[in-house]
Design brief:
CATH topology of the largest domain in chain B: Fumarate Reductase Iron-sulfur Protein, Chain B, domain 2
Helix content of chain B: 25-40%
CATH class of the largest domain in chain B: Mainly Alpha
Distance between the termini of chain A: 64 Å
Largest sheet of chain A: 7 strands, mixed
Shape of chain B: elongated
CATH architecture of the largest domain in chain B: Orthogonal Bundle
Bound molecules: flavin-adenine dinucleotide, iron/sulfur cluster
Strand content of chain A: 15-25%
Oligomer: heterodimer
Distance between the termini of chain B: 56 Å
CATH superfamily of the largest domain in chain B: Alpha-helical ferredoxin
Order of helices and strands of chain B: EEHEEEEEHHHHHHHH
Largest sheet of chain B: 5 strands, mixed
Largest interface: A-B, 59 and 61 residues
Radius of gyration of chain A: 23 Å
């Protein structure tokens, strides 16, 4: 088997991975960096992010205010030392990206413009119209092309971490174009592989968001933290799940029930005003807005559609000029994918799975509990998002913690010996497994798509916006059954050339592990906090659950759940108050 | 749906294969392909990711025209059959998957990053750029690298050396950015490439572009500035460039 050696290897070429790669190259230009990505980097899911990225820049704003909004938005489950580092470094990272060419929207005087986002006291969301992630990703990708030490492995799929001597020293990956299985060795590995929204069927997430990196780390014994917290975004288009960004509400859009009534006023979210008020009504946090939708549905005040119940997002009063200037992509998406023009019609929307607050446990430098393994971006959980992420904090998180992980990994790699030779035996084992289980095995009775569909249905049914023990136990049984049946899965495609069915079966394996972890973590948390709402334990319980869940793989099957303390520095747990 | 298959391990030439696909009013061509893959034949290979027209993965020839399959309704192409082929002008790896290595090389060859003699320290804040300055290049920054313009370009089809519409638009995106000082370096790169003068400006590229980038306009502007530059260098070889 071939092997390649780098000093630092990135798994993932999205926003976090590319930012980390540049940080490595700048920290130590002598290090060789490899970026492995299952799609060409500019196809990574960061490209879909619309609304913006938060960082303090306005004179009336403060780091303290950004920290408080983040922590209260996260229902006090954020680690406050991480939040402090985050808000402190955010402005610098955003300016850096400006220097790298990101076409941020501007004020007439040439300074960067901001807009408010949900759960924010003062507006601080930088944006490039409503294609922020697209512009950030392309600016980052194009900037990486300046750095010769950054080598790319485009359309390579990582299947396993290589660990020897208690240290992560590389990965095994398949080159899609040729089917070649290869060991990519490194002194440090940074996982930046993004989230896993595809555990659910109805999601804003791209097809490629299958939580691979979380599953890789979990199987290597690294704990996954706070995995029960799954964010539903309140406004997705009903059939496709395409996101209508919060910016539509920040610019003045209203949420209306079937009677044309701004129902959020009935859910402790403030009183309706004609123009947007920060931390109020349509600019409340996502968890509360999605829960309010469920309340309306219960009360029979939603509108039924072919693809489930919806409410209306009305932006008509903003007028065509403002819509085209501030949220042109919203209009484009509605026309193209929903066949309606928001200038003239109301947009049907319903809550949709959007983001995973949980992920691979890391410290503030992105280091995991496994030496040599780092993680950053949506795949990681450094705990700035707590129980509910504030919109526009994620894109900033990619930059701040991508850069931190890059610098830390560069430092770590500088002090390590070359990867050990024992790794090749492991890599060859992995190659044999791929052949034996998938490429040479026919005759299995199960196929990928039904298993995936059943998994997604079970998760929507049992682990949605509201949960209870009975539903969670049913989901747990179902996932266990599916994992059992996965043992007899086989694929039709035995080719070595661009075998996308092989990739989907490996992704399914990862998704099944993740589903199990989400369910077990949700069962363990017997309280309601942020995006985790248990009807059988409706209150927040700081005495017992002001703590992170940590899910470890165990040989007995179900994950072992432990609890770890939350770091509180200056903001003692309080009530979340919106709308005043 | 008729799909052009190519399995290099099994066949020397591409072959057509037909599939029956139901039509739902919400379905795009991509949903039809996913139906085939999930229900009928798991071996069909193609790329896709975001299903919202922004990742640029899913471009294919549908009835001879390059389109994003995630943004083309099946219904709009009734009664069928639809003919689906890989994007024209790219070597085929397998089925509907083209090899884009050459395209990626072309993109990076135009130095698509901010070039400056001196960089301002990050601590000193952002470069100022007015909304009008932003508007100068904004359109060229909207390219999703979907390569539909290459598939539509008559020059690229016969002259694969041609650096192509999106790469020139990308060069212009930076040239026209008020923060950038690299126009001359990029001009030198573009000037080395054969074929730019072969572009007849018929504008097929701009016509198929799903993001209204108008690469034909970028080529036009480039030609004008390049010829000015050419005359300057001939007539005033020692003049400031
Ligand atoms: C529709 C939408 C809109 C959003 N809008 C906003 C917003 O306005 N503001 C905000 O702050 N956040 C937003 N978010 C969230 C934010 O976009 C994401 O959390 C963030 O972009 C994730 O970036 P990432 O770098 O961690 O991962 P990604 O961009 O998902 O990149 C993951 C990378 O890992 C690679 N990879 C994955 N698995 C493997 C494997 N097995 N082998 C090799 N490579 C692999 C992929 O190829 C890819 O390059 C939005 C999310 C969605 C879905
Ligand atoms: S210029 Fe238009 S058609 Fe060409 S690659 Fe870019 S987005 Fe696609």
């Amino acid at each position: 088997m071939d092997q390649v050696v780098h000093d630092v290897l990135l798994v993932g070429g999205g926003g976090a991975g590319l930012r980390a790669a540049i940080a490595v190259a700048e920290t130590n230009p002598g290090l060789s960096v490899g970026v492995v990505s299952k799609v060409y980097p500019m196809r990574s899911h960061t490209v879909s992010a619309e609304g913006g990225a938060a960082a303090v820049i306005r004179p009336e704003d403060s780091l303290e205010a950004h920290a408080y909004d983040t922590i209260s938005g996260g229902d006090w489950l954020c680690d406050q030392d991480a939040v402090e580092a985050f808000v402190r470094e955010a402005p610098k990272e955003m300016v850096q990206l400006e220097h790298w060419g990101c076409p941020w929207s501007r004020q007439p005087d040439g300074h960067v413009a901001t807009r408010p986002f949900g759960g924010m006291k003062i507006e601080r969301t930088w944006h490039a119209a409503d294609k922020t992630g697209f512009h950030m990703l392309h600016a980052l990708f194009q900037t990486t092309l300046r750095y010769p030490p950054i080598a790319r492995y485009d359309e390579w799929f990582v299947t396993r971490l290589l660990v020897d001597d208690g240290r992560c020293q590389g990965v095994v990956a398949i080159e899609l174009a040729t089917g070649k299985v290869q060991a990519l060795l490194a002194k440090a590995v940074i996982i930046c592989s993004g989230g896993g929204g595809k555990v659910f069927r109805f999601t804003t997430n791209a097809n490629i968001k299958t939580g691979d990196g979380m599953a890789l780390a979990y199987r290597a014994g690294v704990p996954l933290k706070d995995m029960e917290f799954v964010q539903y975004h309140p406004t997705g288009l009903p059939f496709t799940g395409i996101l209508i960004t919060e910016a539509a509400r920040a610019e003045g859009g209203w949420l209306l029930n079937k009677d044309g009534y701004r129902y959020l006023q009935d859910y402790d979210l403030g009183v309706p005003e004609p123009t947007p008020v920060k931390r109020s009504m349509e600019l409340g946090p996502r968890d509360r807005l999605s829960q309010a939708f469920m309340g309306e549905r219960q009360a029979g005040r939603t509108i039924s559609s072919q693809y489930g119940d919806v409410v209306h997002l009305d932006v008509r009063h903003l007028g065509e000029a403002k819509i085209d200037k501030k949220i042109p992509f919203v209009r484009e998406l509605c026309i193209k994918y929903q066949k309606i023009d928001p200038v003239k019609e109301m947009i049907p929307v319903r809550p949709v799975v959007h983001y995973m607050m949980g992920g691979i446990q890391t410290d503030l430098e992105g280091a995991t509990l496994l030496p040599g393994l780092f993680a950053a971006g949506e795949v990681a959980c450094v705990s700035i998002n707590g129980a509910n992420r504030l919109g526009s904090n994620s894109l900033t998180e990619l930059l701040v913690f991508g850069a931190r992980a890059g610098r830390a990994a560069a430092q770590f790699a500088g002090s390590q010996a070359a990867p050990s030779s024992a790794l090749m035996a492991q890599a060859e084992d992995e190659e044999r497994r791929l052949y034996r289980d998938f490429l040479q095995n026919s005759g299995g009775s199960e196929r990928v798509s039904p298993l995936r569909d059943e998994m997604q249905d079970a998760m929507e049914e049992g682990v949605g916006i509201y949960r209870d023990e009975e539903g969670l136990l049913q989901a747990e049984d179902k996932i266990r059954e599916l994992k059992e049946r996965f043992q007899s899965v086989s694929i039709d495609d035995k080719s070595l050339t661009f075998n996308t069915e092989l990739i989907s079966v490996l992704e399914l394996e990862n998704l099944l592990d993740l589903s199990e972890v989400v369910v077990s973590s949700a069962l363990a948390r017997k309280e309601s906090r942020g995006a985790h709402q248990r009807t059988d334990h409706p209150d927040r319980d700081d005495d017992n659950y002001l703590a992170h869940t940590m899910a470890y793989r165990s040989d007995e099957g179900a994950p072992r759940i432990e609890f770890a303390p939350v770091t509180i520095t200056q903001w003692p747990p309080g009530e979340r108050i919106y709308g005043s | 749906m008729e799909v052009l298959r190519y399995r290099p391990e099994e066949e020397a030439e591409p072959t057509w294969e037909s599939f029956e696909v139901p039509v739902h009013p919400e379905w795009m061509v991509l949903d039809g392909l996913n139906h085939i893959k999930d229900q009928l034949d798991g071996t069909l290979s193609y790329r896709w990711a975001c299903r919202m027209g922004v990742c640029g993965s899913c471009g294919m020839m549908v009835n001879g025209r390059p389109v994003l399959t995630c943004a083309t309704y099946l219904e709009s192409l009734l009664p069928g059959p639809l003919r689906i082929e890989p994007l024209s002008g790219f070597p085929v790896i397998r089925d509907l998957v083209g090899d884009i290595t050459d395209f990626m090389g072309k993109l990076s060859s135009v130095k698509p990053w901010i070039v400056r003699d001196t960089e301002k320290p990050v601590e000193d804040g952002e470069y100022l750029q007015t909304p009008e300055e932003l508007a100068e290049y904004k359109q060229y920054s909207m390219c999703i690298n979907c390569m539909l313009c290459y598939a539509a370009c008559p020059v690229y089809q016969i002259e694969p050396e041609f650096i192509g519409p999106a790469a020139i638009a990308l060069a212009q995106r930076y040239n026209m950015d008020s923060r950038d000082e690299g126009a001359q370096e990029r001009m030198d790169v573009l000037a080395q490439h054969e074929g730019i003068w072969g572009c007849t400006l018929v504008g097929e590229c701009s016509e198929v572009c799903p993001k209204k980038v108008d690469p034909a306009g970028a080529i036009q502007r480039y030609k004008v500035s390049a010829s000015v530059d050419f005359f300057k260098s001939v007539l005033m070889p020692w003049g400031e460039r």
